[in-house]
Amino acid sequence: MPRVCEICQGAKAILRRPKTGQSICKECFFRVFETEVHNTIVDNKLFRRGDRVGIGASGGKDSTVLAYVMKTLNERYDYGLDLFLLSVDEGISGYRDDSLETVKRNKEQYELPLLIVSYEQLYGWSMDAIVETVGRKNNCTFCGVFRRQALDRGALMLDLDHIVTGHNADDVAETILMNIFRGDIPRLGRCTEIATSGDGYITRSKPFKYAYEKEIVMYAYFRKLDYFSTECTYSPNAYRGYAREFLKDLEAVRPSAILDIIHSGEAMQVASEVKLPSQTSCERCGYISSNRVCKACVLLEGLERGVPQLGIGKSVKKTQDLLAGRTATRSGRAVDVVHFDKLRKHAQEMRHERCTGCTCDTSAPGT
Ligand SMILES: Nc1ncnc2c1ncn2[C@@H]1O[C@H](COP(=O)(O)OP(=O)(O)OP(=O)(O)O)[C@@H](O)[C@H]1O
Protein backbone atom coordinates (compact mmCIF):
# COMPACT_ATOMS: atom_id res chain seq x y z
CA MET A 1 0.00 0.00 0.00
CA PRO A 2 1.47 3.42 -0.92
CA ARG A 3 2.17 5.67 2.03
CA VAL A 4 0.33 8.69 0.72
CA CYS A 5 -3.44 9.01 0.26
CA GLU A 6 -4.30 8.74 -3.43
CA ILE A 7 -6.96 11.43 -3.05
CA CYS A 8 -5.44 14.25 -0.98
CA GLN A 9 -1.79 13.29 -1.70
CA GLY A 10 -0.97 14.61 1.77
CA ALA A 11 -2.04 12.34 4.62
CA LYS A 12 -0.95 8.77 5.18
CA ALA A 13 -3.08 6.11 3.46
CA ILE A 14 -4.45 3.74 6.07
CA LEU A 15 -7.03 1.74 4.13
CA ARG A 16 -7.77 0.33 0.71
CA ARG A 17 -11.28 1.10 -0.51
CA PRO A 18 -13.11 -2.17 -1.27
CA LYS A 19 -15.16 -0.48 -4.00
CA THR A 20 -12.33 1.09 -5.99
CA GLY A 21 -9.10 -0.38 -4.64
CA GLN A 22 -7.78 3.13 -3.91
CA SER A 23 -5.43 3.55 -0.94
CA ILE A 24 -6.64 6.53 1.04
CA CYS A 25 -6.59 8.25 4.40
CA LYS A 26 -9.36 8.14 6.96
CA GLU A 27 -10.65 11.68 6.36
CA CYS A 28 -10.81 11.20 2.58
CA PHE A 29 -12.64 7.90 3.12
CA PHE A 30 -15.28 9.61 5.28
CA ARG A 31 -15.64 12.35 2.70
CA VAL A 32 -15.98 10.08 -0.39
CA PHE A 33 -18.34 7.70 1.39
CA GLU A 34 -20.62 10.53 2.55
CA THR A 35 -20.42 12.34 -0.79
CA GLU A 36 -21.43 9.22 -2.71
CA VAL A 37 -24.48 8.79 -0.47
CA HIS A 38 -25.30 12.48 -0.92
CA ASN A 39 -25.03 12.07 -4.72
CA THR A 40 -27.35 9.05 -4.59
CA ILE A 41 -29.89 11.12 -2.63
CA VAL A 42 -29.66 14.13 -4.96
CA ASP A 43 -29.50 12.22 -8.27
CA ASN A 44 -32.58 10.22 -7.35
CA LYS A 45 -34.41 13.18 -5.78
CA LEU A 46 -35.20 11.04 -2.75
CA PHE A 47 -36.48 13.81 -0.46
CA ARG A 48 -38.30 17.11 -0.48
CA ARG A 49 -37.57 19.90 1.94
CA GLY A 50 -39.75 19.58 5.04
CA ASP A 51 -40.16 15.79 4.67
CA ARG A 52 -40.51 13.82 7.89
CA VAL A 53 -38.13 10.92 7.39
CA GLY A 54 -37.99 7.82 9.59
CA ILE A 55 -34.77 5.84 9.68
CA GLY A 56 -35.54 2.14 10.08
CA ALA A 57 -33.21 1.55 13.02
CA SER A 58 -32.36 -2.00 14.07
CA GLY A 59 -29.19 -1.14 15.96
CA GLY A 60 -27.11 -3.09 13.39
CA LYS A 61 -24.19 -1.62 11.44
CA ASP A 62 -26.14 -0.57 8.32
CA SER A 63 -28.90 1.36 10.00
CA THR A 64 -26.58 2.86 12.61
CA VAL A 65 -24.29 4.20 9.88
CA LEU A 66 -27.37 5.33 7.97
CA ALA A 67 -28.66 7.31 10.96
CA TYR A 68 -25.27 8.96 11.44
CA VAL A 69 -24.81 9.77 7.73
CA MET A 70 -28.39 11.02 7.28
CA LYS A 71 -27.96 13.38 10.23
CA THR A 72 -24.57 14.55 8.94
CA LEU A 73 -25.80 15.18 5.37
CA ASN A 74 -29.02 16.83 6.52
CA GLU A 75 -26.94 19.36 8.43
CA ARG A 76 -24.10 19.71 5.91
CA TYR A 77 -26.29 20.23 2.85
CA ASP A 78 -29.31 21.71 4.62
CA TYR A 79 -31.83 19.18 3.23
CA GLY A 80 -34.42 20.54 5.65
CA LEU A 81 -35.58 17.09 6.81
CA ASP A 82 -37.14 16.15 10.14
CA LEU A 83 -35.39 12.92 11.08
CA PHE A 84 -36.72 10.17 13.36
CA LEU A 85 -35.52 6.75 14.44
CA LEU A 86 -38.15 4.08 13.96
CA SER A 87 -37.56 0.63 15.41
CA VAL A 88 -39.51 -2.58 15.36
CA ASP A 89 -39.21 -4.86 18.36
CA GLU A 90 -39.91 -8.29 16.95
CA GLY A 91 -39.70 -9.81 20.42
CA ILE A 92 -36.59 -11.94 20.01
CA SER A 93 -34.97 -12.26 23.39
CA GLY A 94 -31.20 -12.20 23.50
CA TYR A 95 -31.12 -10.44 20.13
CA ARG A 96 -33.55 -7.61 19.49
CA ASP A 97 -33.84 -6.55 23.12
CA ASP A 98 -30.05 -6.04 23.16
CA SER A 99 -29.91 -4.31 19.76
CA LEU A 100 -32.69 -1.93 20.82
CA GLU A 101 -30.54 -0.85 23.75
CA THR A 102 -28.04 0.30 21.10
CA VAL A 103 -30.78 2.24 19.30
CA LYS A 104 -31.75 3.91 22.57
CA ARG A 105 -28.13 5.04 22.98
CA ASN A 106 -28.07 6.24 19.34
CA LYS A 107 -31.16 8.31 20.11
CA GLU A 108 -29.13 10.21 22.73
CA GLN A 109 -25.91 10.31 20.69
CA TYR A 110 -27.58 11.67 17.54
CA GLU A 111 -30.32 13.61 19.34
CA LEU A 112 -33.08 12.07 17.24
CA PRO A 113 -36.57 11.17 18.46
CA LEU A 114 -37.21 7.42 18.62
CA LEU A 115 -40.40 5.36 18.28
CA ILE A 116 -40.36 1.63 19.02
CA VAL A 117 -43.32 -0.46 17.88
CA SER A 118 -43.52 -4.13 18.83
CA TYR A 119 -45.05 -7.23 17.25
CA GLU A 120 -46.58 -8.00 20.64
CA GLN A 121 -48.36 -4.63 20.71
CA LEU A 122 -49.36 -4.65 17.01
CA TYR A 123 -50.22 -8.31 16.45
CA GLY A 124 -50.40 -9.90 19.88
CA TRP A 125 -47.52 -12.23 18.98
CA SER A 126 -43.81 -11.86 19.65
CA MET A 127 -41.36 -13.77 17.45
CA ASP A 128 -40.41 -15.86 20.48
CA ALA A 129 -44.06 -16.95 20.77
CA ILE A 130 -44.32 -17.51 17.00
CA VAL A 131 -41.20 -19.70 16.95
CA GLU A 132 -42.61 -21.66 19.89
CA THR A 133 -45.67 -22.38 17.72
CA VAL A 134 -44.22 -22.76 14.22
CA GLY A 135 -40.71 -23.96 15.01
CA ARG A 136 -37.55 -22.61 13.37
CA LYS A 137 -38.50 -23.48 9.82
CA ASN A 138 -40.47 -20.72 8.04
CA ASN A 139 -40.31 -18.31 10.98
CA CYS A 140 -38.44 -15.79 8.77
CA THR A 141 -41.58 -15.55 6.61
CA PHE A 142 -43.60 -14.31 9.60
CA CYS A 143 -40.87 -11.92 10.67
CA GLY A 144 -40.37 -10.37 7.22
CA VAL A 145 -44.07 -9.92 6.47
CA PHE A 146 -44.85 -8.49 9.91
CA ARG A 147 -41.83 -6.16 9.90
CA ARG A 148 -42.72 -4.56 6.61
CA GLN A 149 -46.19 -3.71 7.90
CA ALA A 150 -44.93 -2.74 11.34
CA LEU A 151 -42.62 -0.11 9.83
CA ASP A 152 -45.56 1.36 7.89
CA ARG A 153 -47.72 1.34 11.00
CA GLY A 154 -44.98 3.11 12.96
CA ALA A 155 -44.56 5.59 10.12
CA LEU A 156 -48.24 6.50 10.28
CA MET A 157 -48.05 6.87 14.07
CA LEU A 158 -45.29 9.46 13.50
CA ASP A 159 -46.94 10.89 10.39
CA LEU A 160 -43.84 10.29 8.31
CA ASP A 161 -43.53 11.01 4.60
CA HIS A 162 -40.70 8.63 4.03
CA ILE A 163 -38.84 5.65 5.53
CA VAL A 164 -35.19 4.99 4.74
CA THR A 165 -33.61 1.61 5.40
CA GLY A 166 -29.99 0.50 5.56
CA HIS A 167 -30.22 -1.96 2.65
CA ASN A 168 -26.84 -1.76 0.95
CA ALA A 169 -25.39 -2.64 -2.47
CA ASP A 170 -24.61 -6.21 -1.38
CA ASP A 171 -28.24 -6.70 -0.20
CA VAL A 172 -29.58 -5.37 -3.51
CA ALA A 173 -27.20 -7.50 -5.62
CA GLU A 174 -28.11 -10.61 -3.56
CA THR A 175 -31.81 -9.93 -4.07
CA ILE A 176 -31.31 -9.52 -7.82
CA LEU A 177 -29.45 -12.85 -7.95
CA MET A 178 -32.11 -14.58 -5.84
CA ASN A 179 -34.91 -13.32 -8.08
CA ILE A 180 -33.03 -14.49 -11.17
CA PHE A 181 -32.36 -17.90 -9.60
CA ARG A 182 -36.04 -18.22 -8.68
CA GLY A 183 -37.28 -16.84 -11.98
CA ASP A 184 -39.31 -14.26 -10.06
CA ILE A 185 -39.48 -11.69 -12.84
CA PRO A 186 -42.08 -9.31 -11.33
CA ARG A 187 -39.95 -9.03 -8.16
CA LEU A 188 -36.78 -8.64 -10.23
CA GLY A 189 -38.26 -5.50 -11.72
CA ARG A 190 -39.14 -4.02 -8.34
CA CYS A 191 -36.05 -4.97 -6.33
CA THR A 192 -33.72 -2.71 -8.28
CA GLU A 193 -35.79 0.42 -7.56
CA ILE A 194 -34.14 2.78 -5.12
CA ALA A 195 -37.49 4.10 -3.89
CA THR A 196 -40.91 2.53 -3.83
CA SER A 197 -44.16 4.26 -3.10
CA GLY A 198 -47.40 2.37 -3.53
CA ASP A 199 -50.40 4.65 -4.14
CA GLY A 200 -50.95 6.63 -1.01
CA TYR A 201 -48.45 4.56 0.97
CA ILE A 202 -45.33 5.80 2.63
CA THR A 203 -42.33 6.11 0.34
CA ARG A 204 -39.49 3.80 1.21
CA SER A 205 -35.95 4.19 -0.05
CA LYS A 206 -32.42 2.83 0.21
CA PRO A 207 -29.83 5.64 0.27
CA PHE A 208 -27.11 2.93 0.61
CA LYS A 209 -28.16 1.20 -2.61
CA TYR A 210 -24.68 1.74 -4.07
CA ALA A 211 -22.69 1.53 -0.79
CA TYR A 212 -20.63 -1.63 -0.27
CA GLU A 213 -21.22 -3.53 2.93
CA LYS A 214 -17.46 -3.69 3.57
CA GLU A 215 -17.26 0.10 3.38
CA ILE A 216 -20.19 0.49 5.76
CA VAL A 217 -18.38 -1.72 8.26
CA MET A 218 -15.16 0.30 7.77
CA TYR A 219 -17.06 3.55 8.20
CA ALA A 220 -18.66 2.34 11.46
CA TYR A 221 -15.27 1.12 12.68
CA PHE A 222 -13.26 4.26 11.90
CA ARG A 223 -16.02 6.58 13.15
CA LYS A 224 -16.23 4.43 16.28
CA LEU A 225 -20.02 4.22 15.98
CA ASP A 226 -21.98 2.37 18.62
CA TYR A 227 -23.72 -0.58 16.93
CA PHE A 228 -24.83 -4.13 17.68
CA SER A 229 -23.25 -6.92 15.68
CA THR A 230 -24.89 -10.22 16.60
CA GLU A 231 -26.80 -12.36 14.08
CA CYS A 232 -30.46 -13.14 14.67
CA THR A 233 -30.94 -16.12 16.99
CA TYR A 234 -33.58 -17.62 14.72
CA SER A 235 -31.40 -18.91 11.87
CA PRO A 236 -30.78 -16.54 8.98
CA ASN A 237 -32.57 -17.07 5.68
CA ALA A 238 -30.68 -20.02 4.13
CA TYR A 239 -31.35 -19.20 0.48
CA ARG A 240 -30.07 -15.65 0.87
CA GLY A 241 -27.04 -17.14 2.64
CA TYR A 242 -26.11 -19.06 -0.52
CA ALA A 243 -26.59 -15.96 -2.70
CA ARG A 244 -24.41 -14.01 -0.26
CA GLU A 245 -21.61 -16.61 -0.39
CA PHE A 246 -21.76 -16.61 -4.18
CA LEU A 247 -21.61 -12.82 -4.29
CA LYS A 248 -18.66 -12.72 -1.88
CA ASP A 249 -16.77 -15.18 -4.14
CA LEU A 250 -17.48 -12.99 -7.16
CA GLU A 251 -16.43 -9.86 -5.27
CA ALA A 252 -13.14 -11.50 -4.27
CA VAL A 253 -12.09 -11.96 -7.90
CA ARG A 254 -13.77 -8.84 -9.24
CA PRO A 255 -14.74 -6.14 -6.72
CA SER A 256 -16.95 -4.34 -9.22
CA ALA A 257 -19.21 -7.44 -9.43
CA ILE A 258 -21.63 -5.98 -6.87
CA LEU A 259 -22.22 -2.78 -8.81
CA ASP A 260 -22.18 -4.68 -12.12
CA ILE A 261 -25.03 -6.93 -10.94
CA ILE A 262 -27.04 -3.91 -9.77
CA HIS A 263 -26.50 -2.15 -13.11
CA SER A 264 -27.50 -5.31 -14.99
CA GLY A 265 -30.64 -5.62 -12.85
CA GLU A 266 -31.51 -1.97 -13.51
CA ALA A 267 -31.03 -2.40 -17.24
CA MET A 268 -33.21 -5.50 -17.55
CA GLN A 269 -36.69 -4.87 -18.77
CA VAL A 270 -39.68 -6.96 -17.81
CA ALA A 271 -41.35 -8.24 -20.98
CA SER A 272 -44.84 -6.89 -21.49
CA GLU A 273 -46.37 -10.38 -21.38
CA VAL A 274 -45.13 -10.90 -17.79
CA LYS A 275 -48.14 -10.42 -15.56
CA LEU A 276 -47.42 -8.06 -12.67
CA PRO A 277 -49.66 -8.47 -9.62
CA SER A 278 -52.23 -5.70 -9.28
CA GLN A 279 -52.36 -3.92 -5.94
CA THR A 280 -55.46 -3.53 -3.83
CA SER A 281 -56.20 -3.00 -0.12
CA CYS A 282 -56.59 -5.86 2.32
CA GLU A 283 -60.26 -6.08 3.17
CA ARG A 284 -59.41 -6.81 6.81
CA CYS A 285 -56.72 -4.33 7.80
CA GLY A 286 -56.55 -1.96 4.80
CA TYR A 287 -52.89 -2.68 4.06
CA ILE A 288 -51.64 -2.77 0.47
CA SER A 289 -52.04 -6.30 -0.89
CA SER A 290 -52.11 -8.16 -4.17
CA ASN A 291 -54.92 -10.34 -2.79
CA ARG A 292 -58.20 -9.64 -1.01
CA VAL A 293 -56.61 -10.50 2.34
CA CYS A 294 -52.99 -9.50 2.92
CA LYS A 295 -50.31 -11.99 3.83
CA ALA A 296 -49.94 -10.64 7.39
CA CYS A 297 -53.65 -11.21 8.10
CA VAL A 298 -53.47 -14.73 6.67
CA LEU A 299 -50.41 -15.57 8.77
CA LEU A 300 -52.05 -14.12 11.88
CA GLU A 301 -55.20 -16.11 11.33
CA GLY A 302 -53.11 -19.26 10.94
CA LEU A 303 -51.40 -18.55 14.27
CA GLU A 304 -54.63 -17.85 16.06
CA ARG A 305 -56.36 -20.93 14.72
CA GLY A 306 -53.41 -23.15 15.54
CA VAL A 307 -52.68 -23.85 11.85
CA PRO A 308 -49.57 -21.73 11.37
CA GLN A 309 -48.78 -23.27 7.98
CA LEU A 310 -51.79 -21.34 6.59
CA GLY A 311 -50.41 -18.79 4.17
CA ILE A 312 -46.99 -20.41 3.79
CA GLY A 313 -46.08 -22.01 0.52
CA LYS A 314 -47.67 -22.25 -2.86
CA SER A 315 -51.34 -22.24 -1.92
CA VAL A 316 -51.22 -18.69 -0.53
CA LYS A 317 -53.50 -17.23 -3.17
CA LYS A 318 -56.10 -19.97 -2.62
CA THR A 319 -55.99 -19.49 1.15
CA GLN A 320 -56.31 -15.75 0.83
CA ASP A 321 -59.40 -16.09 -1.37
CA LEU A 322 -60.84 -18.60 1.06
CA LEU A 323 -60.42 -16.20 3.95
CA ALA A 324 -61.77 -13.18 2.12
CA GLY A 325 -65.00 -11.91 3.59
CA ARG A 326 -64.69 -14.03 6.75
CA THR A 327 -63.97 -12.80 10.23
CA ALA A 328 -60.92 -14.26 11.89
CA THR A 329 -61.50 -16.39 14.95
CA ARG A 330 -59.33 -14.77 17.52
CA SER A 331 -57.72 -16.60 20.39
CA GLY A 332 -57.58 -15.00 23.85
CA ARG A 333 -53.99 -13.93 23.15
CA ALA A 334 -54.62 -11.92 20.01
CA VAL A 335 -55.16 -8.19 19.76
CA ASP A 336 -57.35 -6.65 17.10
CA VAL A 337 -55.03 -5.37 14.43
CA VAL A 338 -55.66 -1.66 13.97
CA HIS A 339 -57.10 -0.84 10.55
CA PHE A 340 -54.85 1.25 8.32
CA ASP A 341 -57.63 3.79 7.71
CA LYS A 342 -57.60 4.55 11.43
CA LEU A 343 -53.83 5.04 11.38
CA ARG A 344 -54.07 7.28 8.32
CA LYS A 345 -56.71 9.40 10.04
CA HIS A 346 -54.46 9.69 13.08
CA ALA A 347 -51.59 10.82 10.81
CA GLN A 348 -53.81 13.47 9.21
CA GLU A 349 -54.86 14.77 12.60
CA MET A 350 -51.22 15.01 13.70
CA ARG A 351 -50.38 16.92 10.55
CA HIS A 352 -53.28 19.27 11.18
CA GLU A 353 -52.12 19.87 14.75
CA ARG A 354 -48.64 20.76 13.55
CA CYS A 355 -49.67 23.39 11.04
CA THR A 356 -50.69 26.52 12.84
CA GLY A 357 -53.36 28.78 11.35
CA CYS A 358 -53.81 26.59 8.30
CA THR A 359 -57.00 25.83 6.47
CA CYS A 360 -56.33 22.19 5.82
CA ASP A 361 -59.27 19.83 5.86
CA THR A 362 -58.53 16.82 8.09
CA SER A 363 -61.34 14.81 6.53
CA ALA A 364 -59.76 14.86 3.10
CA PRO A 365 -57.30 12.07 2.37
CA GLY A 366 -53.70 13.12 1.89
CA THR A 367 -53.99 16.53 3.59
N1 LIG B 1 -36.24 -4.29 13.75
C1 LIG B 1 -36.06 -3.34 12.87
N2 LIG B 1 -36.49 -2.09 13.16
C2 LIG B 1 -36.33 -1.09 12.26
N3 LIG B 1 -35.74 -1.24 11.07
C3 LIG B 1 -35.30 -2.46 10.75
C4 LIG B 1 -35.44 -3.57 11.62
N4 LIG B 1 -34.88 -4.64 11.02
C5 LIG B 1 -34.42 -4.23 9.83
N5 LIG B 1 -34.66 -2.92 9.65
C6 LIG B 1 -34.29 -2.08 8.50
O1 LIG B 1 -34.08 -2.89 7.36
C7 LIG B 1 -32.71 -2.82 6.94
C8 LIG B 1 -32.21 -4.17 6.43
O2 LIG B 1 -32.44 -5.11 7.44
P1 LIG B 1 -31.68 -6.49 7.54
O3 LIG B 1 -32.49 -7.36 8.41
O4 LIG B 1 -31.28 -6.93 6.19
O5 LIG B 1 -30.47 -6.12 8.47
P2 LIG B 1 -28.96 -5.80 8.24
O6 LIG B 1 -28.55 -5.88 6.81
O7 LIG B 1 -28.22 -6.57 9.25
O8 LIG B 1 -29.02 -4.26 8.63
P3 LIG B 1 -28.60 -3.62 10.00
O9 LIG B 1 -27.10 -3.77 9.98
O10 LIG B 1 -29.05 -2.21 9.96
O11 LIG B 1 -29.27 -4.47 11.08
C9 LIG B 1 -31.95 -2.32 8.16
O12 LIG B 1 -30.76 -1.66 7.81
C10 LIG B 1 -32.95 -1.38 8.78
O13 LIG B 1 -32.96 -0.12 8.15
**End-to-end span in angstroms?**
57 Å
* Structural category: alpha/beta
Instruction: Report the bound ligands by name, code or SMILES.
Output: adenosine-5'-triphosphate
**Main pleated sheet:** 6 strands, mixed
Shape: globular
Instruction: Provide the β-strand percentage band.
Output: 5-15%
By CATH, the topology of the largest domain is Rossmann fold
Protein model, in words:
The chain has two domains: 27-276, HUPs (Rossmann fold, 3-Layer(aba) Sandwich), CATH 3.40.50.620; 277-354, no CATH class. The longest helix is centred in the middle third of the chain and has 19 residues, at 139-157. The model is unreliable at 328-333 (pLDDT under 50). It has 367 residues and is an alpha/beta fold. A six-stranded mixed β-sheet has the order 5-4-3-6-8-7. Strands 1-2 form a two-stranded antiparallel ribbon. Strand 1 (15-16) and strand 2 form a beta hairpin. Helices cover 47% and strands 9% of the residues. The N and C termini lie far apart (57 Å). Its EC number is 2.7.7.-. Keywords: ATP-binding, Cytoplasm, Nucleotide-binding, RNA-binding, Transferase, tRNA processing, tRNA-binding.
What's the short story on this structure?
With 367 residues, the protein is α/β, with parallel strands linked by helices. The protein is built from 14 helices and ten strands.
What layout of secondary structure does this protein have?
Layout: E1 15-16, E2 23-24, H1 26-43, E3 52-56, H2 61-76, E4 82-89, H3 96-110, E5 114-118, H4 119-123, H5 127-134, H6 139-157, E6 162-164, H7 169-182, H8 185-191, E7 195-196, E8 203-205, H9 213-222, H10 238-253, H11 257-267, E9 280-281, E10 288-289, H12 295-305, H13 316-323, H14 340-354
Helix pairs in contact: 2-9, 7-8, 7-10, 7-11
The structure holds adenosine-5'-triphosphate (ATP).
Adenosine-5'-triphosphate (ATP) binds at residues 56-58, 60-63, 87-88, 90, 147, 165-167, 171.
